[in-house]
């Protein structure tokens, strides 16, 4: 009986050891690279109905300009730029060229919103003519080349990254090199940049998004 008790105790100790290792591994490694975006946010990163063209309650900037006629180009783009190109559509597109069914733009609509990844695919597939996005990823360039689509880049704006921390975090500023250190894994604790000695949980966007492609360029 004593022998059995010792065996059970030994097995319990081994189980606790593995549990402790697994927990430590999660907080030091796995947690740093998990997808921290909720399924809801992954599915919808902007409230499309707030930025509809030709809607009196829309939050876009409304201006008047001569309307396009004839063959209207299909426009698509990134979530961050939806308010911008929706305002452009409102200004120069005929109202009857845009169709929204309450949740999405319909296939025949001259305005679409499929986000960066979808927009580059649509451009390469020939279902979009103009897209407003950050520069494409290597995979998006390869897909366009495979489809025989020559990408022409026309810079129209500049944007900046804003890194957000918890309101109780005393760190109120980071240099570009410190940010690179955090996302490369060289800097792992807030104490290394003036904060408390707790692990840094660095969140990033999903592959193929415009901001993630820009982030990879920033990382070098």
Verbal overview:
By secondary structure, the chain is mostly helical. It folds into two domains: 48-147, no CATH class; 163-219, Periplasmic binding protein-like II (D-Maltodextrin-Binding Protein, domain 2). The chain has helices at 2-33, 39-43, 82-92, 115-125, 138-146, 176-184, 210-219, and strands at residues 75-77, 130-132. Helix 4 runs parallel beside helix 5. The protein is globular and about 60 Å long. The relative contact order is 0.11.
List keywords for this structure.
mainly alpha, 220 residues, D-Maltodextrin-Binding Protein, domain 2, disordered N terminus
Order of helices and strands: HHEHHEHHH
Number of domains: 2
Q: Which structural class should the secondary elements be placed in? A: mainly alpha
The beta-strand count equals 2
Using the alpha-carbon principal axes, give the shape: globular
| Spatial gap, N to C terminus | 63 Å
Topology record:
Blueprint: H1 2-33, H2 39-43, E1 75-77, H3 82-92, H4 115-125, E2 130-132, H5 138-146, H6 176-184, H7 210-219
Parallel strand pairs: 1-2
Task: Give a nutshell description of this structure.
With 220 residues, the protein is mainly alpha-helical. Helix content is 40%, strand content 3%. The N and C termini lie far apart (63 Å).
């Amino acid at each position: 009986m004593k022998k059995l008790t010792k065996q059970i105790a030994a097995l319990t100790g081994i189980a606790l050891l593995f549990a402790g290792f697994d927990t430590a591994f999660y907080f030091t490694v796995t947690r740093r690279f998990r997808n921290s975006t909720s399924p809801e946010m992954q599915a919808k990163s902007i409230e499309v109905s707030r930025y509809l063209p030709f809607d009196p309650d829309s939050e876009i900037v409304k201006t008047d300009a001569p309307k396009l006629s004839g063959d209207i180009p299909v426009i698509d783009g990134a979530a961050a730029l939806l308010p911008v190109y929706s305002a452009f559509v409102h200004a120069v597109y005929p109202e009857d060229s845009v169709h929204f069914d309450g949740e999405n733009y319909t296939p025949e609509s001259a305005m679409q919103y499929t986000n960066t990844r979808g927009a580059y695919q649509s451009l390469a597939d020939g279902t979009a003519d103009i897209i407003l996005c950050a520069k494409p990823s290597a995979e998006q360039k390869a897909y366009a080349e495979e489809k025989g689509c020559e990408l022409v880049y026309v810079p129209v704006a500049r944007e900046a990254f804003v890194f957000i921390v918890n309101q109780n975090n005393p760190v109120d500023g980071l240099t570009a090199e410190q940010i690179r250190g955090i996302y490369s894994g060289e800097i792992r604790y807030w104490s290394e940049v003036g904060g408390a000695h707790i692990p840094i949980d660095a969140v990033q966007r999903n592959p193929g998004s415009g901001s993630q492609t820009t982030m990879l360029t920033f990382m070098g």
